[in-house]
Design a protein that fits this description.
single chain, about 170 residues, alpha+beta, 10-stranded antiparallel sheet
């Protein structure tokens, strides 16, 4: 399949998502406004944020000769959010896992979600690095990545704690 870049005209792209995180259902709305560059506003149970974003649109033809289009929107930045307490997540992970497991980044990553669910929220918003990406292959095929990474380092593998809804949310373009 060959996809050629297309000029991204100014537009609004709205994606609504639903999923489960920290043992509770959630909804999230992502609204992109702009052309090749713009702003994405993300609204969910964690609050509301706006980040500078970029968009790339491509069109092409697949091996069957069918017209295909793909749009990718991505954003990253630091914002203050209320999140589960980092020290409580670390204590939970170290309490659940053996020292050998605590040294394995894959096992730690798979444990972060349940420990975040069991941890109290921060009393005030703290600075968090957010990464968001929306991929739209056609109106029905949408992929969303939404990660929140604590800026404060940890002694866990990889040196950071990242909250990421797993499985990824189910999303639809509006």
């Amino acid at each position: 399949m060959l996809l050629l870049p297309a000029t991204a005209a100014a537009e609004t792209v709205t994606t609504k998502c639903a999923g489960e995180e920290f043992g509770k259902p959630y909804e999230m709305t992502m609204i992109y406004e702009g052309g090749d560059s713009g702003t994405i506003t993300i609204i969910g149970s964690f609050g509301e944020m706006s980040l500078p974003a970029a968009k790339k649109h491509r069109e092409g033809v697949n091996a069957d000769g069918d017209k295909v289009s793909a749009t990718e929107i991505w954003a990253s930045g630091e914002v203050p959010l209320i999140v589960p307490e980092k020290t409580a997540i670390e204590s939970c992970i170290k309490g659940k896992l053996t020292p050998e497991q605590v040294a394995d980044s894959d096992i730690v990553f798979s444990t972060i979600g349940s420990c975040a669910a069991a941890s109290p929220p921060t009393a005030e918003p703290i600075p968090i690095k957010v990464y968001a990406e929306v991929g739209i292959l056609d109106p029905q095929t949408i992929f969303v990545t939404f990660k929140r990474t604590y800026l404060e380092k940890t002694d866990l593998p990889d040196g950071t704690i990242t909250l990421e809804p797993l499985p990824p949310p189910r999303c639809a373009a509006q």
